[in-house]
Amino acid sequence: MNLVVISSGLREPSSTRLLADRIGAAVRAELGLADIEVVELRHLARAITDAMLTGFAAPELEAVFEKVAGSDGLIAVTPTFNATFSGLFKSFFDVLPEQTLNGTPVLIAATGGTERHSLVLDHALRPMFTYLHALVSPTGVYAATSDFGARGLDERIAKAANEFARLVPLCGRGRGEAVNAELDEMHRLLAGAQQ
Questions:
Q1: How far apart are CA 167 and CA 106, in angstroms?
Q2: How many CB atoms lie within 10 A of CB 126?
Q3: pLDDT digits over 165-184, tens only?
């Protein structure tokens, strides 16, 4: 199983990356995975801008597109600016080739300075990923600055990770491989029964 985390924090260290890592660790534990690929969009900011201006993706951006396209699920984490996702986050998904996320499970998450921005999950992220035909996991995670170190955040992360971990095997790209393997086995058994 192959999962990718997209983190669009702009600073280092970043509360967005911290949240992305905590969610990634919880999902890894739920699915028994060794690793999850994390992509920091700030390192690709120029390539994303160039792709928006020219319509062509640089090789390093194309490599990220391929990782996302080949993933069984995506964890997307953004800082909140002016009650919505960051421009860098949105720009990445604007230049991502159409239909890349069709049927891909996505866990949405965001960070912000105060709790006032918590609706960013349902008013900005969920509609955008629904438009991109992704399968948005029911529970997203919002973390205000005051949430870090608080017990409630760990509980929300655990709930979101559990739901996402149940969604990925049912809907991720790996599910098609499992169905094909089951069909191959069924055909093999039927062929043996006809002899």
A1: 9
A2: 18
A3: 999 998 866 554 554 555 56
For each of the domains in the chain, give its residue range(s) and CATH number, in order of start.
Answer: 2-192 (3.40.50.360)
Q: Are 73 and 39 in contact (CB under 8 A)?
A: no
**Interior CA angle at 154 toward 11 and 18, to 5°?**
15
Q: How many CB atoms lie within 10 A of CB 85?
A: 25
Buried b (16+ CB within 10 A) or exposed e, 41-67: bbebbebbebbeeeeebeeebeebbee
Regarding pTM above 0.90, the answer is: no
Structure tokens at 183: 């069909």
